[in-house]
Amino acid sequence: MQATAGIKAVAQSATQSVARTVARFPIIAAGLSFLIPGLGQAAAGKPRRGLVVALPVIALLGALVGIWLFARHDILSTLVSQQFLTTFLALDLLILAYRVWVIVDAYLEAGGRLLISRKGREMAAMGMLAVLVTVTAGMHVVVAGVDMQTKNALNCVFNANGPECWDFGIVGSSGSSSSTDPNATVLPDDNSTGAPSTTPTGSGTTGPTASPTPRWQAEFDAVTAHSGPAVDQPALGTLNTGDAVVGVAVSGGSYSYDGTSSTGWIHITSGQLTGAYVARLFFSEMAPVAPGQTATPVPTQGPVVYQLGNLPSFTGTARDWAADGQLNVLLVGIDAGAGEDRSLGLRPDSMILLQVDIATGRAAMYGIPRDLINVPLPPESAKYYACHCYGPGPGQLKTDYLIDYLWNEAANVHPAWYSQYGTGNDNTSKFLRGLGALKGAVSELANLQVDGAVVINLAGFVKLIDALAPNGLSINVPYEVKQQPQYAYSLSDGRRIFNIDIKAGQQVMTGEVALEYARLRHVTGYDSDYYRMERQQLILRAVRDQVNPCGLLPQVYGILGALGGAVWTDLPQSDVATVAALAAKVGTSNTANFSLDPATTGAAYDVLDQTALTKIHGIVAHGLDSVPAGIGGGSGGRGATC
After folding, report:
1. Is the per-residue pLDDT at 15 higher than 60?
2. CA-to-CA distance for 497 and 191, rounded, in angstroms?
3. DSSP code string of 464-517
């Protein structure tokens, strides 16, 4: 009993001592309640008032504990809902008012006075009180700013009208070894595959039209089209057996083939390769039709590549994406910019199909060449084409039917053939129709339902990478990526540069350099889209491995700002929590990588047929078979942990 009484006496004495100190310096009470609401009132000798003041905080902490215990799986989906963010903004302002009152009340209860005084102690106390209130307000203003930035980012990323917030460029330098040249416009752009012909396509033709300009048909595969009539001029594209061009015969530089020399060239005057030159030796002239004569009819149906009845009716969008046990997302890098069709985002630069098993987190990435020809379409659109695919009919150029051009085909050239994805003629309708057509085609290609798309604007990608990895992405570059000198490369801000050279070995890349590494087409010794697809997957894996969720907190404001200008998706916002939880299971050790290139599919020059399509279906059907289950994000992946 004596010991207990002694302890009580000591505690009472300490409490009285603290109260006397606080009474002499009321700002101490204000500071204590700044840290813990109610603590200052208790220190001023009024513990009951302190308890009452602290009740809102106690209730809030209790609510948070209850949410964590009983509803933690719904936290993320709630945090990213617009309704919660709006409510939280109002709550933040209410908490600000509460905290300011608590601080001032503690100051007053400790004997402080709110008046302007010439006494040094009182002036200092009022100054420190103003600082506490200002710091408190600043903290809540920052929280409100993050809340509003999150609302804006989510509005942009999940905008039903498409990517209205995209950032079409930045001011900056490439960061890699490169040089600029004011005369770059005379050379072909490394990133461009040219614009497709806008000549309407159909299920066939009625024969060549009368024209004073001859038509020519390629008799060989892989015939190079040059920017001038000489073999040392920059390459602009290739043509294969059966491809037809319109152009005039001219003389130029000498070349030889199989013991025969020639100076004859064809100057192409229409179509995708307008202005290019091809060697006359590799073409035969098609019979012209004189004005006023009727052409001999040609069958309206060309070679059928796929049987219409064998094409599933994939819609391109899944209402319940988890129904088949997988999340299948098309990742599309868009070469968007100001002017022409680029402002609509109609130029896919890269395409990767991401397949994730929901139960295990096993994943596979399939790189899709943008030069694929004869890509199967859903039957609603396939019926309009001779081949039942996005491919050429009789007398049409194969190179006008790359999958890269399908978006524009659906948006602008033949919108009625893709009316299942919308019928409007405004920019939003065109964008969504083109994207729907692309997802439908990839669904047919892979023989699975593409559940949605994540579209990345490559100019905004630079800012996003710099925000996610301010110290750069560390990439182990397997081979030197050196730009061929006859090609220019367009930076994210539109400037064109030459001589990009990214050395082999461990490299730390800024966002701009990472974009160069992912996009550069014409690389010495590695000149194909297939190497480019491998590099793009390497970038994605580096982001997955190196970005630490907890380390992002200091950059959260910049990340949110960059996110809305770089990313758009048609996945439902309500599924964010489920998708995020699934992403936490996916890491580098449980992700397989495939490239649907000719070496994999057996399709010569990316021209698909039923045999190649069947092989692709088999690859995708068994793509996850040898992949281990995800464990906390897999090796190297951080998941949702720090």
Report:
1. no
2. 12
3. HHHHH-TT-EEEEESS-EEB-TT-BEE-TTS-EEEEEEE-SEEEEE-HHHHHHH
Last residue of a domain, one of 125, 157, 189: 157
Question: Is 617's pLDDT higher than 90?
Answer: yes
Whether the predicted pLDDT of 151 surpasses 80: yes
In 3D space, the residue among 292, 263, 291, 293 whose CA is nearest the CA of residue 277 turns out to be 263
| 341 and 439 together in one domain | yes
SS3 173: coil
74 inside domain: yes
Residues 531, 501: Cα–Cα separation, whole Å: 16
Whether 196 has a pLDDT exceeding 70, the answer reads no
Q: Are 399 and 546 in a shared domain?
A: yes
CB atoms within 10 A of CB 262: 16
Q: Convert the pLDDT of each residue in 527-560 to its tens digit.
A: 777 788 888 888 888 887 777 666 666 677 778 8
For residues 429 and 362, is the Cβ–Cβ distance under 8 A?
A: no
Q: How far apart are CA 362 and CA 641, in angstroms?
A: 19
Q: Which domain CATH number covers 357?
A: 3.30.420.590
Q: Is residue 307 part of a domain?
A: no
**CATH number of residue 217's parent domain:** 2.30.30
Residues 82-130: tens digit of each pLDDT? 888 889 999 999 999 999 999 999 989 888 887 766 666 677 888 899 9
In which domain, by residue range, is 149 found?
12-157
Residue 480 lies in a domain: no
Same domain, 351 and 396: yes
Amino acid at 432: L
Task: Burial-class residue 559 by CB neighbours within 10 Å (0-12, 13-18, 19+).
Answer: buried
Quote the CA–CA distance of 487 and 235 in Å, as a whole number: 9
Q: Are residues 547 and 406 in the same domain?
A: yes
Backbone phi and psi for residue 333, each to the nearest 5 degrees, phi listed first:
-90, 125
For the chain, what is the domain count? 3
Q: What is the pLDDT of residues 434-483, one digit of tens each?
A: 999 999 999 999 999 999 998 888 778 888 888 888 888 899 999 999 98
Last residue of a domain, one of 123, 157, 191: 157
Helix (H, G, I), strand (E, B) or coil at 216: strand
Q: What is the structure's pLDDT at 457? A: 82
Tokens of 335: 């070469």
Q: What would the two tokens of residue 300 be?
A: 């309206």
In this predicted structure, the answer to whether residue 345 has a pLDDT above a threshold of 70 is: no
Same domain, 246 and 346: no
**C-alpha span between 391 and 306 (Å, rounded):** 11
Write 599-603 long-range contacts (CB < 8 A, 24+). Answer: 599/530
Question: Which H or E element spans position 453?
Answer: strand 452-457
**Shared domain check, 345 and 240:** no
Let me know if residue 110 belongs to a domain.
yes
pLDDT for 602: 82
Whether residue 548 sits in one domain with residue 405: yes
pLDDT at 277: 93
Q: What is the pLDDT of residues 158-180, one digit of tens each?
A: 888 888 887 654 333 344 455 44
Euclidean distance between CA atoms 169 and 81, whole angstroms: 29
Contact residues for 82 (Cβ-Cβ < 8 A; gap 6+):
151, 154, 155
**Contact indicator for 147, 92 with CB cutoff of 8 Å:** yes
Task: Reply yes or no on whether the pLDDT at 191 is more than 70.
Answer: no
- CA–CA dist 261, 258 (Å, integer): 8
Looking at the structure, do residues 333 and 211 belong to the same domain, yes or no?
Answer: no
